[in-house]
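Task: complex structure prediction.
Instruction: return C-alpha cells for all chains below.
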Amino acid sequence: MNDDLVAHATRELVLANRILAREDVIDDFGHVSLRHPTNPDRYLLSRSRSPVAVTSDDIMEFELDGTPVDQRGRRVYSERAIHGTIYMARPDVRAVIHHHARAIIPFTVTKLVLKPVFHMGSVMGATVPVWDSQDEFGDTNMLVDDLPRGHSLARALGPHRSVLLARHGACNVGHNLRAAVFTAVYMKDNAAMVLASLPHGPVSYLTPGETEKTAAMLLSDMPLARAWDYWLTRANFAGL
Amino acid sequence: MNDDLVAHATRELVLANRILAREDVIDDFGHVSLRHPTNPDRYLLSRSRSPVAVTSDDIMEFELDGTPVDQRGRRVYSERAIHGTIYMARPDVRAVIHHHARAIIPFTVTKLVLKPVFHMGSVMGATVPVWDSQDEFGDTNMLVDDLPRGHSLARALGPHRSVLLARHGACNVGHNLRAAVFTAVYMKDNAAMVLASLPHGPVSYLTPGETEKTAAMLLSDMPLARAWDYWLTRANFAGL
Amino acid sequence: MNDDLVAHATRELVLANRILAREDVIDDFGHVSLRHPTNPDRYLLSRSRSPVAVTSDDIMEFELDGTPVDQRGRRVYSERAIHGTIYMARPDVRAVIHHHARAIIPFTVTKLVLKPVFHMGSVMGATVPVWDSQDEFGDTNMLVDDLPRGHSLARALGPHRSVLLARHGACNVGHNLRAAVFTAVYMKDNAAMVLASLPHGPVSYLTPGETEKTAAMLLSDMPLARAWDYWLTRANFAGL
Amino acid sequence: MNDDLVAHATRELVLANRILAREDVIDDFGHVSLRHPTNPDRYLLSRSRSPVAVTSDDIMEFELDGTPVDQRGRRVYSERAIHGTIYMARPDVRAVIHHHARAIIPFTVTKLVLKPVFHMGSVMGATVPVWDSQDEFGDTNMLVDDLPRGHSLARALGPHRSVLLARHGACNVGHNLRAAVFTAVYMKDNAAMVLASLPHGPVSYLTPGETEKTAAMLLSDMPLARAWDYWLTRANFAGL
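Output:
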C-alpha cells in the first residue's frame, strides 16, 4: 500500500510539473516537490531537468537535508535546499514550488507590495514577504544552494503561503499539491493584474476579511479539483 | 420537436463553452448559460467543470431559482444564481456569461470607466455599470452564490448588456447565445485597447450615436455568423 | 494562360488570408484583396468570411465599384468599397488589406503619431495619415460600406502605403501582394514598439533618409520571398 | 573525424535556429552562426532563409570575410558581415546571433540602459553597449552588409557578450553555441522585465558581484544542458 501511495504521489507530481510548465509558471529552471506520502522526513522531487520534460522515472526521493536516497548517478537540482528547509520549518506544508514567473519579478526589484487585487489572488495570502540574499550572504551566485540559505529563506516565508526572492523569483507552498499549484498560478495572475491596474490610479485591494474567506473557499477540494481538471485538459491539448 | 430544439441548444452551448475557453474569456472558473429554447422558466448550464472541457453530457437544466431539474449526483456551479436572477429580471435575455477575463480586471479595481474605444467595442454598450459585493454584503467569499446576491447583481446590470463585478470579473448578456459571446469577447478586447491607449494622452471614445448604430449592426445575424465561424475554426485548430 | 494567372493569383490570395490570420493582423473581420492579374478594372476578394477559414472556392471577382462578377448567391463583405476605391485612385496598387490589428488602435484614438521606430517599420512609410468617418459623415455604423466613404478614405490614403481609421483600424497597400502583407505585419509590430518605448523617454525614430532606403530594400523581391517563406512555415505549423 | 565534427556542428546549428525561432528571439530576419569546429578561420551559417525553416542542407561554410566556400547558387544573408567581423575580433567567440527580439527594441530607441535585473539576465553581461549606424555611416538601409560596418559593430561590442543596434536590434555571442542562445533568450527576457518594472519606481539591478558570479554559474555546462533540453522539448511540441 505504501508503494501504491508513492506511485500515486509520483504520478501527481509529474502532472504538476507539466501543468506548471504549460501555465508559464516554471520555464527551464524552477521545480516542484511533494512531501513523501508516508514518511514526512522525506520529499519527492525530479532529478535536475526542466518540468516540461519530467516523467515518472525522473522523480527521486530526498532526505530533508537534501541527501538523495537512491541517487544512481542522477544529477540533482542545486536549489533543492529550498524544499527541505521549508518542510523542516513547516509541518503543515506538503508541497513546495520555486519559480521565476515573469509577472512577479517587478515586485522583487522595486518597492511595490504584492497584495490580492482580485478574488483569485486571495490564495497567495494577504502578506507576501520578500527575502533578499544580499542581506545575510552578500554577493552570491544568487542560488539557494545550501542549507543556511534555505533556512534563511524559510524564516522569511514564516507562516505564509508565498515568499518573493529579490531579483530572482518566488516560492509557494500548499497543504497539498493542488493547493500549491493553484497558489503559484494565481499569484502570477494577480501580480499581472496589479501591474496592469496601477498606472490607472489608486487600486482597491481585497479587504483582509475578503482575502481570508475567499482563499479558504478556493483552496478547498471542489475548486482545486475543477482547476486541476482544467490544467490537465490544457496540458493535454499542448501535447505535454 | 422539443427534443430537437434542446439537442440543438445543447450543442450550441457546448460550442460556446469551447469558444470562450479558446478566446481567453473564461479560464478554469466562469460559465455560460442559455435560456431553455421552449420553457423560458428554465435555463441550460454545464455541471461544475471548466468550459474548456465541457461536453453535451455535462449540460443540465435548471429552474430560475437554481434548482437542478434532474441532478443525478452531478456537482453544480455555486454561482449559478447569477444566471437565474438575470433571466428573471430580463425577459429579453437568452444567454448569460460570467467570466474573469484579465483585461477587464483593472476596470474593477480602479475608478477607470469602461467605454467603447473602437467600433467592435460598441457591443458591450455605452454604459457598463460596476457592482460591488461589499456595498450590500460586506466581507464575503466574493462569490455570487445565493439569490439575494444574484438579485443585487441583476439590479446593477439593469437594462444593459454588461456589468463589472468589483475585484472579481464581469457578466455579459445577449438576445441570443452568439450575441452574448460576441459581447464578452469584444468587451475584453475593448478593455485591453483602452488600457493600451490611456498612457498616451486623452482618448477619443465612440460617440453615443456611433455606439448605438455600430452595435446594432454588429449584433445582427450576418456579423454574428461570421464571427461564430471564425471562433469555431480557431477552436478546432486548437484541438478543442 | 489567363486561367493559369487567375488560378495562381487565387492561390496566393488564399495564402495571404491565412498568413494575416496567423500573424494576428486580421481576426474575424477585415479582408485582403488582389487586383485581377490581367484585368486592372477588377479585383479578387473572398466572399464574406473570416480570413482564417478562406479557401480557393471563396475567392470572387469584383468590378471596381464593388459589383460581384458572378455572385452565385454568395454573401459579400459590406466594406469591399475600401478595395475598389483604392484601386481606382492608385493604379500602382495591386493589393489592399483592411484590418483592426490591436497594436495600431491606440494611434487611432489619441493624438499619437505613428512613425517608423525600427528598421522593419520603415515599410509602412514615413507618413501614416488618419481618416475619421466623423469628419464627412458624422455618426455612422463606422463601416466603409459605400463608395462615397471609400473615396473619402482613398483620398486620405493619398500616395501613401498606410492609412489609419479613427476608432476603427487601418488599411495597407502594396505594389504586390507580398509587399502589402509585409507592410501590414510590420506596421503592427512597429506600432507595438512605439507604445513600448514611449513611457521611457524621448524616442528616436528613423530619419527620412533611413526610412526611404530601408523600405526600398525591404520591399524588394528577396526580403519579401524570405518573409513569405517564414509566414507559410508558421501558418503550416498552426495547422492553417 | 573532421567530417563527424562538422556533421555534429551542423546538427546543433540547425537546432539553434529552430530554438531561436520557437523562443521568439528571431523571426523572419536574423541569423545564428557557429565557428567552424576545426578551422577557426571559417564559420557555419544557413543560406538566406528564416531560422524557423532551416535544415541541415541549408548550412553553408564561409570565410571570415563573408566569401562562401561552396555557394552552389544559394542566396546568402546580406548581413553575414556581422558574423565574420566578430569572429576576427574575438578569438574567444564560437557562436554569434543577430536578431530583432521585440523586448530589446525600446532600449535601442531611447536613453534607457539595459542592465541585469533578475538573476537569469546576468548572462548578457553587466555592460551592453549600443552601436548606431548613423555615427559613422549616416543614412543607410540600416543593414550591416559590408565589412566596414561589421568592423564598426565589432568594435562597439568590444569584449562584451551583447551589443544593441540603434533602431534595429542586437547581437549576442558565446564561448559556445548554447551559451550564445542562452544569452540571447535571457537578454530578451531581462529587457522585458526591466520595461515591466520601471513604471513602478526605482529599480534595483544586480550588483556587479552578483552579475559576475551568477553569469559564470549559468553559462557553465550543467545549466546550459538543462536549458537546451527544455528548448528542444518546446520546439518539438511546436512541431518545429
